[in-house]
Each structure stands twice: as structure tokens, then as C-alpha cells.
Amino acid sequence: MSVTQPLVEVQNLKKYFPVTSGLFLQRKVGMVRAVDGVSFIINRGETLGLVGESGCGKTTAGRTLLGLYPATAGVVRIDGHDICSAKGRELLSIRRKAQMIFQDPYASLNPRWTVNAIVSEPLRVHKLIKNNKERSERVKELMGLVGLSGRLVNRFPHEFSGGQRQRIGVARALASEPLFIVCDEPISALDVSIQAQVVNLLEDLQDQFGLTYLFIAHDLSMVRHICDRVAVMYLGVIVELAERNELYEHYLHPYTRALLSAVPIPDPKKDRARQRIILTGDVPSPIHPPEGCRFHPRCPLAGEECRINDPQWREAAPGHWVACHKV
Amino acid sequence: MTKILEVNDLMTRFHTTEGMVYAVNGISFHLDEGETLAVVGESGCGKSVTMMSILRLLPMPPAQIAGGTAIYLGQDLLKIPDHEMEHNIRGKEIAMIFQDPMTSLNPVLTIGKQITESLRTHMFMDQAAAERRAVELLEMVGLSDARQRLKAYPHQFSGGMRQRVMIAMALACNPSILIADEPTTALDVTIQAQIVELVIRLREQIHMAIIWITHNLGVVAGLADRVNVMYAGYIVEEANVEDIYEDPSHPYTNALLAALPRVDRRRDRRLKSIAGAPPSLLVEPHGCPFAPRCEYVVERCGMETPRLTPVGRDHAIACWVDIKTGAQR
């Protein structure tokens, strides 16, 4: 396998959740099309940002990518292995290489376990270090990597602040020496002064271990800072994908444009002077997504074609992909 | 400008099983008629507790207002009788909206019932008049089919629509002050932009003063006239909105802005992070609260708490050091 091959390849990935009705006879009455055919690649050592509003399917995409939800359709290859068809030992070995950091540092750590038990779990599951003493040495080393003292390993999660807990989550993700980490809104539950600490830590670890990240977030300012390329999701599909400065300066899709114009700028003169595109209404239900282009009911440019045909995913400029009839 | 609200030396504490929590430690600020004041700070800095103290919404005990005054149109809100507060001030003169519109709306009552309730209590309207006014209010906050919506329950609305309903309820009695406690934090950016635009429009229409509490320095840049920055129960910097962003003079404000990436700029450096975490409020404050995390710290910071001192027109900071020259004040 050549090094230039992308680490993660996703082709036409779909994840539908059934909607059931009735208490005993659970009839299927519909499908939530949380992820409805997304394709992208992530190169080795790269950070790909996945942005969108709540309910657009970005978290589901991240979880399906790691096989935490079985995919409804599509292919996900991580380091050459298809995670959707892998079973048993092969699946375990892919999972060792692909880890996750969760949004809520309160819910993602078991409150009854000590930090030692939490961080050493991947080592036990993957039988990486069998000797107890060596294992606790490794836990201390991991704690050091994320900037926590090794003396804290016998404490419980509730004794730590939000930022410290997120560091523990990072240490756990690093334990199995992964190649790829899905960071699902890792900083959105943290205070501003702590966010920068965690972002810098993630960047340092990436440099040190050559990690590849999928960075799922709704904070577009932070995504511009940390990601190399950015994909914009709306209602289960990716509508635009480009290198970060290309996307933020030469966006093509009207949704990207509206999203960027809604992000507040910490500069009173600039913020007051700029043109906002205020979208009306809310995101439609993913159970009955609109026909044609999914954005057309809220789109200021929508025409006849947009109501009928699904726009094609095409490369509008080198490395700049978009799905829109009007650009 | 006439001052509509003036808070002096407000001190709020909580008696808990773990000890005394020093939540608000003697803060003073004012609000001018018709202006928008932003109160910015991280979780636990005392920004919400300050407002809840003024409106006497904190359960006492465990809360205790240990000192200070809050003068609204000549009367001290901390001293007036409970029924006076309930009937004439809260929800009538001073209204409040909260971060999570789902938990602050009653799930088993219709929207109409909840809006008309305050109109009937405070304005002594009959049901028909209250309903007419409720429809008017819902239209004002941009909800279509307002008359039908009166019969709907909160779960039938999306997050952004619920926040609009909350705003309609808050404005029901034409308050002269609206306190908005992180009203857009739970919302997506596109919906946040809708709500901010709505508030700016209503502010001009009704001419009310607004206190906007937030942890997001971005949101208030386009919205506020003045900004108070809070840290660990103290106001550390107070300035008009231009000065806060162009000339931040307190080390904390400065560091907070440097820790913020910008959507309108290319990445030029690593983010500057603030080491450590905010102090525990269980310890009686001693010296400057930011001293343990401050890069400009001098010996005096650990011993004496700096008072808010003017450094320019409408601009005051609580710091012993001039961060531009490094000299002590």
C-alpha cells in the first residue's frame, strides 16, 4: 500500500434509522435519513472538518464511519480495510487504529471507574499490554502526553473539571496508538479559555504522532483554524467541500454563504458593516427531506430546476466540490 | 443619559454543605435608558447570579445577598417587599429570558395560556383582550399563523421558535429592561442570527434597555453598546464595545480575545491559550482572582484586590499593571 493513498475513504455512505409506531407491534412508519449518501476522503496526517447545524447528520456520519452504527449502504475504508464488511478480529484491528473523542466530557467517562481503568481499557481490550505494572506505567505516560499529572490516575471523573475530563478522553483515545481519530465536537462543551488549550493539545498530538482527524463541529471559526479541508453538511448530504481558505473566501454554495454570514465576528465595526444572509425557517425534517435540492425551500437562489432535480456533486475548481444547480 | 438601573457593591454568597461559595464579590455597574449592556464571562463567573440576585430569583437559603444595593427608578430592588417585586417589577418592568427555552416553558400548558397569564396578572386584562394582545406579540416576534399557534404546546415548536415565544412573553407588559441570559447559546448559528436580528429590531421598536449575558465575545460585538467582562465574581473590565475589542486593557479580556479564532481571517498562529482554570469559589477571595493565570502578575496582585479604576472615557479596569508598558499603577 502506498503512503499517498488516503487513510480514510468514504463512498456513498448512508445511514437510515427506522421510525416506529405502536407500543407492542413496532410498525415501521418511516425512515430518518440521517446520512444520505456522502463521499469524501481524508489524507494521512490531514484534518478534515465536517460542519453543519444540529440534526444535519454530522455526528451520525462520524459514528457510522467508525462502525459504531452499522451502515445502511456504502463503503468506508480505513487504512485499506472495509469497516462495513469487517467482522471479528479484522474489525477489532481496525477499531484499534480508529478512535473517537466525544462531545460531552461528562457523559463519555464512566463515573464509577477510576481514570486508570478508563484510560487502560483500550489496552486491555486490544491486549496490548498484559502486565499490570507496565500498563499503569503506560497510563501515566498517556496522562503526561495530555498534560495531566500521573498522580491523578486513581481519581474518579467527577473530581476533574470539564477541560481536564476532555483531556482524559483524549488520553483514552491515544492509548491504542490510533492512526485516525474522529473528534465529535470535542470543545463545544468547554469554556473559551479552555477551548484553546484543548485545540492546541490536539494539534501538538497530531504533529507528534502523525494523526489524522475528522473534526466534527458547528463552530466555523474554530474549524477554519484547525482544519486543512472543510466539508459542509445539510440534511444528510455534503453540499460543499474545499480547502479551508478556498471555502471561507470563495464559497460557492448558497448554504455555505448563509452559514458563514451568520457567524459573529468579534469586531464591532466589521460585524455591523457586513451583509448578513438570514435564512428563514428551520431545517426540514430528515424523515421527509424536500424533493430535488434539499436546500431549495430556504435557498434565496432556488429556481424551477432545484425543486425537481437533485444537484450533481461536481468539482467546480481543482479540489473544490459543490452540489448546486446555480453555481 | 439617565441611569435606569444602578447596582452598587452587590455581594451574593451560597451556603452549601461544602462551605461558602463566593459567587458575586462586590460588583458595581449601571444601565442607561435604552442601551444594550453585554455581560461576558465564562461559566461560574457570576454573570447569571448577579441578574438573579437583582430580580430576587435565587432561593434563600442557600443563597444570601450579603450586601449592596440595586436602584431601579429610585427604589432599591433588594429591599422592597416580596409582593411589590412580584406584582410590579418582575415580568412587568424587568423581564428575563433564559438559555433553554424548553425548560423555561411549561410543557403542559398551551403557548396562549402562558402568554396571557402575565397579561392578566400584571395588566389586569380579560381573557379576550389578553388573547388579542398575545396574537399581536407573536406576530411581532415573527411567528406566522399566530392565532392558531396560541393553542399549540411548547414541544410543537423548534428551538428557535420557542425562543421567539419566550421573547414574546417577556415583552408582553412592555418592560423597560430585558435581561437575556445566554438566549442564543442553545441555538444554531443561522437561528442565532435570526434571534439577534429580531432583538435589534424590537429594541428600536420598543425602546427598552437590554442586559445580554453571554460567554461568546463574538455575538455581542454587533449588538452591545457597552460590555462588562466578569471573572470569578468580579467585573474586571468595563468599556464601550469598540474599546473592548480594539483596546482590551485587562489581561483577562486580552487573553480571551487572543484565544478566539476568527472566521474572517486566515490562520496566522497557534491559539494563545490561558493556562490553568478559573479559581474555586469555595475559597474566600484574596488578591486579584486572575493572578494565578495572569502573565503580567506582580507581587501586589496576590495581596490586594484591585478596584475598578478608569483608564479612559467610559473605560475602567481592575488591574494593578498597565499591560502596554508593564508599569504598575
Percent range of helical residues of chain B? 25-40%
* Strand composition percent of chain A: 15-25%
What is the CATH-assigned architecture of chain A?
3-Layer(aba) Sandwich
What structural class should be given to the helix and strand makeup of chain A? alpha/beta
**Care to count the β-strands of chain B?**
12
Spatial gap, N to C terminus of chain A = 37 Å
Order of helices and strands of chain A: EEEHEEHEHHHEHEHEEHHHHEE
What does this molecule look like?
The complex is a heterodimer of chains A (327) and B (329). Chain A has 327 residues and is α/β, with parallel strands linked by helices. Chain A has a single domain, classed as Rossmann fold. Chain A is 33% helix and 24% strand. Chain A has helices at 58-65, 88-97, 115-125, 132-145, 162-175, 192-209, 220-226, 244-249, 254-262, 268-273, 304-308; strands spanning 8-21, 27-42, 47-51, 73-78, 81-82, 98-101, 180-184, 212-217, 229-234, 237-243, 314-317, 320-322. The longest helix of chain A has 18 residues, at 192-209. The two termini of chain A are 37 Å apart. By secondary structure, chain B is an alpha/beta fold. Chain B is 31% helix and 24% strand. Chain B contains 11 helices and 12 strands. Chain B has helices spanning 47-54, 82-89, 101-104, 111-123, 127-140, 146-149, 159-171, 189-206, 217-221, 241-246, 251-258; strands at residues 3-16, 19-32, 36-40, 63-72, 75-76, 94-97, 177-181, 209-214, 226-231, 234-240, 309-312, 315-317. In chain B, helix 4 (111-123) crosses helix 5 and helix 5 (127-140) crosses helix 7 (159-171). Chain B starts with a strand and ends in a 12-residue tail after the last strand. Classes of the chains: A alpha/beta (327), B alpha/beta (329). The interface between A and B is large, with 45 and 43 residues.
